[in-house]
Design a protein that fits this description.
Helix content is 41%, strand content 17%. It is built from ten helices and 14 strands. The protein has a seven-stranded parallel sheet with strand order 3-2-1-4-5-6-11, with helices on both faces. The protein has a three-stranded mixed sheet with strand order 12-9-14. A two-stranded parallel sheet has the order 7-10. The chain has 323 residues and is an alpha/beta fold. The radius of gyration is 19 Å and the shape is globular.
């Protein structure tokens, strides 16, 4: 098979591309390079610069590279930006997906993997989030991911496409320094950025109903996330695979924000105390995945711990930013 990875030069996309090519899969990447970096991609992977909104380009790429399956990672993913620009987020995330699915159906492609998010759940009051936990997103970004899942499943039923939706929890770390997350939108690089600028880390709210008062999250190493994609691709590639599958991708273990900031201090050697600020709207006290279904359906479980995530991320940060 040949797999098209949209967003293939991004932080997650490049890790997925590397895991798949290392396992012998043929891959072609599509990326508009708004956040992607071509140098992240392994040598030999074709990179097409363009958008999932470009129907003509999609048709050409699918035909010229004889694509037989798609891994759709390209999306806008900043929560605050989605609140400020909801119509753009819907146009990019849902509109781009619709255009891509049309091209996939027209090309007769029958394997499709969709990058979803734990943001579809909103703020559930449960110890472990299962795939049956009701979805109630609290921001436009999460809404576009949930709408994307609906669209993927509907297109799958209509056109005989086997589909998989992976609901990521909090992704961190890197498989190699050059593949590191260069944005400052997730908590680990946000803390690194503060420390690099000689500022104290920030914690948003310490009065939640949790043991230390800070939010608890499920952090997943990017290497494990990439392996989950490979497992999902292998399942989709199996003869006779039909229908749809939706699974959580997490470790099933909660780490509080204060615990994470303390660990970052240990790894970086900068142990200055964090500054506590007010809560951010929409932050759930606890969001931890049940990974049981992924283990059952994909044969996948996370293997890397939080310290490994932070240590690898710090090496990646120093590679790109220095200190």
């Amino acid at each position: 098979m040949t797999w098209l990875i949209t967003g293939g030069a991004g932080y997650i996309g490049a890790h997925v591309a590397r895991a798949m090519t290392d396992a012998g899969e043929r891959v072609v990447a599509l990326d508009d390079l708004s956040a992607g970096v071509p140098a992240r991609l392994p040598a030999g992977i074709p990179l097409v610069r363009g958008s999932a909104l470009d129907a003509d380009l999609l048709r050409r790429v699918l035909a010229e590279h004889e694509v037989t399956g798609v891994v759709h990672l390209a999306a806008r993913k900043q929560v605050a930006e989605s609140v400020a620009r909801p119509t753009w987020y819907y146009a990019e995330n849902v509109g781009g997906l619709a255009t891509l699915l049309d091209a996939v159906a027209q090309a007769g492609i029958t394997r499709f993997l969709f990058s979803s998010s734990a943001a579809v759940y909103g703020t559930p009051d449960v110890d472990l989030i299962t795939e049956d936990t009701p979805c109630a997103p609290v921001n436009p970004y999460g809404e576009t991911k949930l709408a994307g899942e609906w669209l993927v499943r509907a297109a799958g039923r209509a056109h005989g496409i086997a589909t998989t939706c992976l609901r990521y929890f909090n992704v961190a770390g890197t498989a190699a320094p050059e593949l590191a997350d260069t944005g400052v939108f997730n908590i680990v690089p946000m803390v690194f950025d503060r420390l690099t600028r000689d500022e104290a880390p920030r914690i948003f709210g310490d009065d939640y109903p949790t043991p230390d008062g800070t939010c608890i999250r499920d952090y997943i190493h990017i290497r494990d996330l990439a392996d989950a994609h490979l497992a999902a691709v292998r399942r989709l590639s199996s003869p006779g695979t039909r229908g749809d599958l939706t699974v959580n991708i997490g470790r099933g273990e909660g780490v509080s924000v204060r615990e994470l900031v303390t660990l970052i201090g240990e790894v970086t050697g900068d142990t200055r105390p964090a500054v506590v600020e007010g809560r951010r709207p929409g932050d759930a006290p606890r969001a931890v995945a049940s990974p049981a279904l992924a283990a059952k359906e994909l044969g996948w479980t996370a293997r890397h711990g939080v310290r490994e995530m932070v240590e690898s991320a710090w090496q990646g940060w120093l590679h790109h930013h220095g200190r």
